[in-house]
Amino acid sequence: MAKKKWISCLLIICTCIVTAGCWDMRELQDRNFVLAVAIDKADEVKEVETFVQPHGTKRYRVSLQILKFASGGEQREETNTFIKSNTGESIFEMVRDMLGQNSKSLWFEHIQVIVISDAVLKEVGLSEILDFFKRDAEMRSRIKIYVTSGKAQSIIEFTPPSKEPGGVYLANIIRLHNKNIHVAGARTDLGYTIQYFDNNSNVLLPRIEMADKVVKLSGSAVFKKDKFIGYADEYAVAGLKIMLGTEKSAVVTMDSPKTPGHQVIFELFRHDTRLTPHVEKGVIYYTVDITMYGNIGELQGDISLNDTLDPEYLRILEVAFAEEIKRNIYYAEKVFKKDMKVDPVSSFASKLKAHEPNTWEQVQDQWDELYPTIPLYVSVNVSIRNIGSHK
User: Fold this and answer.
1) Which CATH superfamily is domain 237-386 in?
2) Separation between Cα atoms, residue 68 and residue 121, nearest integer Å
3) pLDDT digits (tens, 9 = 90+) for 2-16
């Protein structure tokens, strides 16, 4: 009987040991969670936080936005993050050296955004900058990547009016890109960007700027493979998104056909878009066929309810909106194809490879030279389904 009790006690003890959940638990307050990373060119002057570097030069300044934990009884501060910086050439080495500035380990599992200054990208390729992030197992593939023409550190130092952590705020402002036609936000995460590199494709990343204490996404940074080419403005990005069908909703404006100097606004809510390559007698060309459905979102000027109830006037608006959308697409074609000579995210190449594989085999080695010469023909049909009027 005593032996059975002894065995039972041993089983209970063993069970408790095996089922103990957090034997290596570390409290949240014992970790420094990195929410955002900014990468700038290093300053000319020697900074106090730098370190003796046996190889390379003080090429970059890396700044980390770290979440600040407060105990329950403490009063809420104006900011809930703080910034740590370092200068060097190896991002990995700079991050490790920053442990000398912190009393806790740095954790990158919850990093939200990477902001890169174009001053850095004008000197080195994007893939070199992101090499550390793609190799580290802690990094998430959904990290957002932004490019700025100013100081990247200033972007992550921004304090959101919502008082949420800055890194979280910066990551969330891209979430509605499919409703904001001016922002290139589709497939711009770290994971997709690395896939583009692996496939030797071109890359578009959102542009972010700060002006008068306001942070705003607008336009796109354009990369040929991993080389920074320049920026595409909002109108070019809008035309590209319409052409590729990556927008879910859009607002299209044009001058009123009836009252010049005033605007009519079309709200897109559904579209069918087909970008198709064609090869005839060895000549390559593309067609874009778009059918759009939407509402009249806003009318300016002296336009009465009776005008919008007139089918003939609505047809005039539909044709005018279709022409405006065609102008937008051709503007995007000019910016990307003729000015920058870049196939955006290699979308035209991938279409030709899928539809005409034999032709692609023949031209793939000369694609960069051939692409700017390939014609594009655009056909747009707009259907106004609702005028939005009420009594």
Assistant:
1) Nutrient germinant receptor protein C, domain 3 (3.30.300.210)
2) 30
3) 666 667 777 777 666
- Residue 14 C-alpha from the chain's centroid: 51
Give yes or no for a contact between 254 and 324, defined as CB atoms under 8 angstroms apart: yes
pLDDT at res. 179: 84
Which residues have C-beta within 8 Å of that of residue 100, sequence separation ≥ 6?
Answer: 51
d(CA 227, CA 203): 9
DSSP for 265-316 reads EEEEEEEEEEEEEEEETTEEEEEEEEEEEEEEEEE-SS--HHHHH-HHHHHH
Structure tokens that stand for 17 in this block: 């040991």
CA distances to 97, 129, 162, 279, 359 from 50, rounded to whole Å, are 8, 19, 34, 58, 54
User: Where are the chain's structural domains?
Assistant: 29-232, 237-386
CA torsion sign, 127 to 132 to 135 to 141?
negative
Q: Mean pLDDT, to the nearest integer, of 240-251? A: 89
Quick one: DSSP state of residue 121? H
Residue 144 near residue 189, CB atoms below 8 Å: yes
Burial of 353 (0-12, 13-18, 19+ CB in 10 A): middle
Is 86 in contact with 100 (CB distance < 8 Å)? Answer: no
Q: Is 115 in contact with 208 (CB distance < 8 Å)?
A: yes
Give all strands (DSSP E) within the chain, no chain letters. 31-41, 60-67, 81-88, 105-107, 113-117, 144-148, 203-211, 214-224, 227-232, 250-255, 263-280, 283-299, 376-386
| Strand duo 263-280 + 250-255: pairing | antiparallel
User: Mean pLDDT over residues 43-48, rounded?
Assistant: 62
Sign (positive or negative) of CA dihedral 104, 109, 114, 120: positive
Average pLDDT over residues 26-55: 74
Burial class (CB in 10 A: 0-12, 13-18, 19+), 267: middle
CB 104 within 8 A of CB 69: no
Model pLDDT for residues 282-325, shown as the tens digit of each residue: 899 999 999 999 998 888 876 666 677 788 888 999 999 999 99
